[in-house]
């Protein structure tokens, strides 16, 4: 059973995804985190590298959606 704090994090994450609010995705990241893409296995390290990827990928997604 999720705790109240976990439920708040889950709801915050789902809101970011639902609204394509990629800038606020960084609130979940720390400077020592890693993010791996599957199945390619490409790994991004640290908040700055991950956010650069997320903003690029999210921007591409929004551009594609608008076309």
Strand element count: 2
Terminal CA distance: 42 Å
| Rg (C-alpha, Å) | 13 Å
- The helix/strand class is mainly alpha
Overall geometry: globular
Number of domains: 1
- The number of helices is 3
The fraction of residues assigned to DSSP E strands is 5-15%
Element order: H for helix, E for strand: HHEEH
Mean pLDDT, nearest integer?
83
Order of strands side by side in the largest beta sheet?
1-2
Largest sheet: 2 strands, antiparallel
- Which regions are unreliable across 5 or more consecutive residues at pLDDT < 50? none
Helix content: 55-70%
Descriptive tags:
globular, 67 residues, single chain, 9% strand, mainly alpha, 2 strands, 3 helices
């Amino acid at each position: 059973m999720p705790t109240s704090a976990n439920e708040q994090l889950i709801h915050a994450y789902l809101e970011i995804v639902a609204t394509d609010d990629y800038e606020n995705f960084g609130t979940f990241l720390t400077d020592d985190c890693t993010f791996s893409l599957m199945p390619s296995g490409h790994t991004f390290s640290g908040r700055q590298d991950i956010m650069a990827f997320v903003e690029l990928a999210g921007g591409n997604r929004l551009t594609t959606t608008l076309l």
